[in-house]
Amino acid sequence: MDTMRGCSGRVIASPLGARCLPGRLPARLLVAQASQKHYQQKQQHKQQQQQLPEEKESPLLLLPHTLRALCAPALLATALALGGPASASEVFDLPYYKPEVTTDSSKRASSMVKTLNAAGAKMYGAFWCSHCFQQKQAFGKEAEKTWQGYVECYPDGWHQGSPIAKACADASVRAFPSWVINDRLVEGELSLDELEAELSSAPGEPSPTMVAYQAAQATRAAQATLAAEQATLAAEQATQAAAEAASQ
Q1: Four-residue CA torsion sign, 146, 129, 33, 77
Q2: Which pTM does this prediction carry?
Q3: β-strands 3-5, 184-187 pairing
Q4: How much helix, strand and coil, in percent to the nearest 5, is found in the chain?
Q5: Which of 67, 101, 107, 110 has CB atoms 3.0–4.6 Å from 63's, for a disulfide?
Q6: Residues 176/124, Cβ–Cβ less than 8 Å
Q7: What is d(CA 180, CA 193) in angstroms, rounded to the nearest whole number?
Q8: Whether the Cβ atoms of residue 80 and residue 90 lie closer than 8 Å to each other
Q9: Can you spell out the DSSP letters for 158-213?
């Protein structure tokens, strides 16, 4: 995939197509924050009017973070329409939380995590990044517990203007997830096959993932060129046929 809509909502170019960009809070998390603020305002109003003894938790806030993300656009629109903040940009902070991995680990995934640990491979990510979460889901909950290579780039939560963690800055992380395997920086989710290829490639060699991407790009470019040439030829033939018909 050449382009995708990253977690921050911007269209970006990515060899792997599956990554998040730092810079501003992603819309799916603004949803949770906007909904939470709106709910708190509603509850305060109820307490003033009805003198309720205690607040109940919002049904939205009881949902897992992954489920909130699925309904982000609709929930954000609803929260704002019902009296939430005037715009999503008014919500600035997101406390750190650790998303819960729910999948079971396959034997291959468990073996892969052991190999990644032995190789000293690192994955730099952000707790709010859906692509980072999907990478963890690919490993499974059992393997994730033994994984030593994950580095959280916002361990204190996301706050407007807050810098990325020093370890991530030192690794020149520009997007999430970012892998460092055999001294190579590779951005985006990696399949188990791609991880195996990266681990098998010696330091100093080109990234197998990037080599495969570039080959696919070259193939698509050649196909596009051929299609354009065929379309031009067909148009010329149609024009010539029309001219011949008109002269008869």
Answers
A1: negative
A2: 0.61
A3: unpaired
A4: 50, 10, 35
A5: 67
A6: yes
A7: 16
A8: no
A9: EETTPPPPHHHHHTT--SBSEEEETTEEEES---HHHHHHHHHSPTTSPPHHHHHH
